[in-house]
Amino acid sequence: MKLLLHLSILFISLASSYSCTSNDKNALLQIKKSLNNPPLLSSWNPRTDCCTSWTGVECTNRRVTSLTISSGKLSGQIPNQIGDLLYLRTLDFSYLTHLTGNIPRTITKLKNLEILRLKQTNLSGPIPDFISELKSVTFLDLSFNQFTGPIPGSLSQMPKLEAIQINDNKLSGSVPNSFGSFVGNVPNLYLFNNRLSGRIPESLSKYDFNAVDLSGNGFIGDGSMFFGRNKTTIRVDLSRNIFQFDLSKVKFARSIVSLDLSQNRIFGKFPRELRKLRLEHFNVSYNSLCGKIPRGGLLQTFEPTAFSHNLCLCGTPLKAC
What SUPFAM superfamilies does the database record attribute to this sequence (predicted)? Predict the structure, then answer.
């Protein structure tokens, strides 16, 4: 009998040590209610433990540290109660086409947040400046939404940021001058398919970006500041803009494996040093380049379409000079 009593006490003790706290559980139930109790969250039963049986919820030491709600029928706005999950490290609301409204300011209470992914929803309005208060975020993905207005310059004040992924929105204006003075890491820049325009600040030339994608915007002027012989850049996509610079004067990092400069106003002769790159993707079509394509390396392995519609490029894989 005593053994059974001890086992019962042990079981209760173990259960309580793994079950989520009442504060976190109540916050999650309020979030479910604010989202109109969707079937997607049917496992969020107040009679069960949120750490062990609730869809999209992960815990550490009884505190909710990850919340992932994705790919389901859910309508409404991001509830203010999201800010009550104080130990969250990952917040992921993705592929929810009926999630609307703005990013709530209460999100700034999540001081432990490392990953913020609000991808492919119907969120709109400006990307708020207060996102920069999330100093622990390493990965920011706000892509495929309806965000409008300028890129917040305050994003440069997030010291641990490794990637800014705000592509496929309706953002306008130019790249903020503050992006020339990141306070910590130099993040990958994914700004493609927006309505951005203007010149890229020259101050960005001092940075060694791992990946830059500015394609599908209306940028003008010089885009060559992303290149440099001593850099370690891997991927650059400046396609479908109005960049205008002399390609023959550009020095390329040997590390580049993906380079797309198509559909701009880039001019000059074809740089011979491009033969030295181990390119997996390459396109310079629809520009104003001229001269002979140098033989060697991987250049001749690409289709003619990667070189077509230039001023006077010639040589394999195009017609002979």
Answer: L domain-like
Domains annotated on the chain, with CATH = 22-314 (3.80.10.10)
Please tell me the distance from the alpha carbon of residue 215 to that of residue 227, in angstroms, as a whole number.
Answer: 16
Q: What is the per-residue DSSP string for 224-248?
A: GGG--TT----EEE--SSEE--BGG
Q: Exposed, middle or buried, 5 (CB in 10 Å: 0-12/13-18/19+)?
A: exposed
What separation in angstroms does the CA of 2 have from each of 6, 7, 88, 211, 275?
6, 9, 41, 65, 80
Q: Is 25 helix (H, G, I), strand (E, B) or coil?
A: helix
Nearest residue to 231 (alpha-carbon basis) of 254, 257, 200, 202: 254
Whether 246 contacts 270, CB under 8 Å = no
CA distance 258 to 282: 6
DSSP letters along 66-121, please? EEEEESS---EE--GGGGG-TT-SEEEEESBTTEES---GGGGG-TT--EEE--SB
Question: Tens of pLDDT along 8-40?
Answer: 433 333 344 458 999 999 999 999 999 999 999
Distances (CA, A) of 133 to 4, 88, 155, 167: 52, 15, 9, 21
Its pTM surpasses 0.85: yes
Tell me the two tokens of residue 259: 């380079």
- Per-residue pLDDT tens for 133-163? 999 999 999 999 999 999 999 999 999 999 9
pLDDT tens-digit profile of 291-309? 999 998 899 999 999 999 9
CA pair distance 183, 202, nearest whole angstrom? 17
